[in-house]
Structure formats: structure tokens, C-alpha cells
Amino acid sequence: MSAENAPRQNEFFDYVRYIGKQNKDFGELKKQTSLLTKKDTLYLTDKQKEFEDSIREYEEKFLVKQKGTFIGDVVNIKIEKILKDIPKASNGRPDSLAVYNYYKQHYWDNVDFKDNATMRNPFFFNKLKNYLDKVVFRHPDSVSVEVDKIIQKTQQGSSLYKIMLAHLTYSYETSKVMGFDKVFVHIIDNYFKTGKAFGIYEDESVVDKIIKRADLLRPLLIGAKAPELQMIKATDYDKIDKMGFELAKTNEEVTKIFYANYNEINKMLYKLSSVKADYLILAFWDVDCGHCQVEIPKLLEVYHDLQKQNIDVQVFSVYTQHEGDKYLKYIAEKGLDWINVYDGVHYNNVVEKYDVYSTPVIYILDKNKIIKAKRVGVEQIKDIVKIMQEEYQKN
Fold first, then answer.
1. pLDDT at position 340, please?
2. 270 phi and psi angles, rounded to 5 deg
3. Which secondary-structure segment (H or E) carries 316?
4. 3-state DSSP assignment of residue 190
5. Could you tell me which of 63, 175, 172 has the C-alpha nearest to residue 111?
6. 88 by DSSP, 3-state: which?
7. Is the terminal CB of the chain with fewer CB neighbours within 10 Å at N or C?
8. pLDDT grade, residue 268 (50/70/90)?
């Protein structure tokens, strides 16, 4: 391929061909190397470094020649800024901290956040993801600081500003990394609630929905005190059933029944805050949920194992539905000898209060009812308890 009367375009084609040839040559070399011995592995590692150094040198020369052009900007974002003359640390080894600091400080060199063309750079969003996932210290507070720094580099209201803010909002709202919903809440508090998200979405009602989502998550962030729950013990189901809550057809009828039986109900309410334990497992589940039917027996095993180790642990098991007879039957069949409760008087709005959009959902609280982990699998519980034990010992 070549371009007529476009020397820079042809130089770009040369660049693409060069990179393609290097990758092909290294691929062929990998096929020819058996990797059966340590010597083979070391040989291939050395060769890979040679190829990478060759490509980096070529790209740096290409970048100097193309400086100020769009394709120069494209390659600039692709190139990793690496410290070449690495100093020695006090132990005589290469100073890895110096390497990291240089890499982080120069990561965004010559990237123009004021130019909307930057968002069309094919390497930009991968570079952004790599920075926030791997370069920045992996903690929601640190990431929040870096998110602010990056957004502040852009021109508020520009296309790049809008698409980056929307991109970061979605990324952290849907993050699978526990605790990183805190970054999402930070973004909403500092940009959406302050009017700085205006124009990001064609439908402004989306902004209201996103703010509502952040407001729901805020009390559930790692480090927050778990919202209070005032539940009914499963063993009190018959008393509650006779009051007629499940026959009520409107919220008004439920409220009327509640206050008509207030004194009796008040004696039965079992508060989450009243449970005393160094480790409190808060589990939301449904008898008819297939996944729950697999996980709850596993949770019971973990609970008993922890008890055998003389660990002060309790399980506050919350049935998310209201079919008490079915709940009691399951408890008896499976031998669930922990705290079994449900929202029998429709007082807590459990699903929204604890963001239970699917089941099971497991939170782990410390002795002060502070959320230490959430939405975890049963297989993670013992490791989390171990980490919490170490924290207790330090304090």
C-alpha cells in the first residue's frame, strides 16, 4: 500500500510494515525454539528484549520525525516511557522504585488532553485503563485522586471531557473489583452532583438515575457502618402470619397492620446491631434460588469450620422473600443453626437497602458492624477472616 502525494502517510505505512515484520520474525523464532530447557527459555527472553529494543528505537526516531502530526500523537501514546539509565539502589541492584517513578511521571508526556482528536487515538483508552489498573496504587482512594487529575487535564464541556467522564463512570459503576464502587461514588459526588456532567448524556434523566445509584451505594461502601436491619426471626413466622401482612394488597394496608400490632411486633424485632461477634457474616438469599441452594450448604460448612477454630463468628441469615413456612422447612432440612431472619413485617426494604439485585449476596462485618467485604463468594470467607484477624492483632 502507498499514498500518492502524501509522504507522511507512506512513512506511516513503512512504520506499520516494520512493526509487522518484527512481530512475524519473533513469532517464527518462537516456533523454532523448543523451550525444553532453561537455556532455551533464557535465549528466547534475550531475543525478545532485542526485538523490543529495536522496535522502541525505531519508534522513537519515527516519533521525532512525526512530531506535531496526528500519527505522531498516535505513536506517542503507544510508546512506553521507560527509564534507560537505571541507577543502583542501596543493595546494589537496579533501583526499581526509580524505574516506577520515572514511568509514572512520564506516562502522559506529550498527550494533549485539550485536543478532542485524542479520544480517537486507537491506543488512548487502553493506555488510560492500564494507568488506572496497573500504574496507580491499587486502592480506590488513590484511583479517585488520579481520576480527578486526568479529568482536570481536559477542557470541561469538550467532547473528550464528556466521553472520558462517561467512560470512567461506567467503568467504576460496573467494576468487579471489590471496593472500587467508591471511585464511582466519588465521580458522582464531584461531577454529577455539581453540575459538571451536563451534556454527557442526551437524556438528562440518565444523570438522575446515576446519582440515585450512587446514593444507594454510598452507605454500603467498604469501611462504612452497615445499615441497620430490624428483622423477624424465622421462628416467629406463625405470629406474624396471623397478623395478615401477606394478605395486604397496598402499602397503606401493610402500614395499618403494622401499627395495629406495633407493641407485639416491637418485642419480636431482631436488630442486626444487637448481634455480638468479632466476625459477622451477613447473607441474603432465597430458598428457591438455585445458586443459593448450592452456596448456603457450603456457607454452613465454613461457619462450622470457623466455630471449630474457636473463632467468634455469627451468620445473620436473611431470607429475602416472605414464604415463612417454606423458609422454616429449609432451615430444618439443612440444619441451619445460625441466626435465621426475614423481613416479615415489610419494614426494611432489604433489597434496596443492601443492593440485593441477585442472590446470594454476602457481606462480612467486623465487631463494630463496619463493612470489611461485600458480594464475596463463600470460598473467600476464610481468607477474609484471616486478614481481619491480622488487623485485630495490629490494633
1. 98
2. -115, 115
3. strand 313-319
4. helix
5. 63
6. strand
7. C
8. very high
- At a CB cut-off of 8 Å and minimum separation 6, what does 279 contact? 306, 311, 312, 313, 314, 364, 365, 366, 367, 385, 388
Residue 86, CA atoms < 13 Å, CB-side half-sphere: 16
Give the CA diameter of the chain.
89
Angle made by CA atoms 73, 77, 80, in degrees to the nearest 5: 135
Task: Report how far apart, in Å, the C-alpha atoms of 291 and of each of 163, 284, 301, 378 are.
Answer: 37, 12, 16, 12
Confidence of residue 34 (pLDDT cuts 50, 70, 90): confident
Let me know: does 166 contact 200? Beta carbons within 8 Å. Answer: yes
Distance CA 320, CA 360 (A): 10
- The three-class DSSP label of residue 269 is strand
Pairing of the two strands 279-285 and 313-319: parallel
How far is residue 386's CA from residue 214's CA, in Å, rounded to a whole number? 30
Which sign does the torsion angle of CA 373, 376, 381, 386 carry? Answer: negative
So what's the pLDDT on residue 217? 97
The Cα 259–Cα 248 span in angstroms is: 14
State pLDDT tens for residues 358-395.
Answer: 999 999 999 999 999 999 999 999 999 999 999 998 87
Residue that the C-alpha cell 487529575 belongs to: 149
- Give per-residue pLDDT as tens, 158-197: 999 999 999 999 999 999 999 999 999 999 999 999 999 9
Burial class (CB in 10 A: 0-12, 13-18, 19+), 109: exposed
The whole-angstrom separation of Cα 39 and Cα 342 is 64
- Decide: helix, strand or coil at residue 231: strand
From CA 374, how far away is CA 356, in angstroms rounded? 11
> In terms of DSSP bridges, do strands 313-319 and 339-342 run parallel, antiparallel, or are they unpaired?
parallel
> For residue 116, what is its C-alpha cell?
478532542
pLDDT band at residue 96 using 50, 70 and 90 as cut-offs: very high
